[in-house]
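ingest -> validate -> predict -> emit
validate: passed (alphabet ok, no gaps, 87 aa)
predict: started
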Amino acid sequence: MVLSSERSVPQIAVELGISVSNLRRWKRDYQETRASRRFPGQGRLPADEEEMRRLRRELERVKQERDILKKQWASSRNGGHEVCLHP
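emit:
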């Protein structure tokens, strides 16, 4: 509300029934948190995003391994001499 409104912080504080200093502090804390999430430091992703990236890479690797094993299994089922049209 404070960030997207054209009204001043004191006006909004009065409307919400809170002190101006609290609203200013909350606004500052919010903006600092957003800035630190954008650039968490030293070019590193936040821990949860780094973990998500690692898990996606691992999932892709496991899918590739599964596909290779499926192809090997299909070719061994037909003796390796025939082409498998329906796995």
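The chain has one domain: 9-77.
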